[in-house]
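User: My collaborator and I are trying to settle a disagreement about how two of our proteins should look. Neither of us wants to argue from intuition anymore, so we agreed to look at predicted structures for both before our next call. Could you fold the first one, then the second, and keep them clearly separated?

Assistant: That sounds like a sensible way to settle it. I'll keep them separate. The first protein:
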Amino acid sequence: MMGLIGAIIIGFFAGLIARAIHPGNDKAGFIVTTALGIIGSLVATYGGQLLGLYKNGASAGFIASVIGAIIVLFIYNMITKKS
């Protein structure tokens, strides 16, 4: 349970940094950016657990969460630009 809470807290900050790093004009607001950061952190956490990089219950590190948030933000921008 603490791994999930840690992933959410780290994801909050990772989303803000991913928004600053990701190029382009994002029209997503603060809440959407934060949610995408949390999703990116969870993707990094559970993806790392599936790959054996993290033990069960451990959350991803900050850099992995930022990378996950950038990937999720990129996918989000691809989806919203097509519609």
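The second protein, kept apart from the first:
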Amino acid sequence: MRLYTSQETIFNDEYFMRQALREAKEAYEKEEVPVGAVVVLNNQIIARGHNQVEMLNDSTAHAEILALTTAYQALGSKYLPDATLYVTVEPCLMCCGALYWGKIGKIVYGTGDEKNGYQHFTSTNPFHPKTEIITGVLANECAKLMKDFFRARR
């Protein structure tokens, strides 16, 4: 399904994942693990986030958590049933918990995370039962950014 706001821009999963990738690249430049996220409601980005664990000295400062917090504040709500989270890497269990409690409507992520992603720890769905999950959007680009980051640090 393609949605248009102008003849030049197509707002779809790939478009919004590219926005999340921009956030991930910002994290990379700050020497943070390059994960980026955006929260979208009615085809508009209402919140952005990228990992800030090192900068804030806070192990909970993941891209998803920061984007969710901003979205809650923007809407004055603790639930996001009509929103979509785009995140470059499979969420960890901590982020899954936050997404569960926020009742987010849809989660789209790029690449899997064999070491820290939720699928490594559980075979059950850790998200709200009504949450739709889409995986693999721009997976190669998302994975390459992570691989480049860790390769440069070895």
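Some points you might bring to the call about the second protein. DSSP finds six helices and seven strands in the chain. The mean pLDDT is 94.
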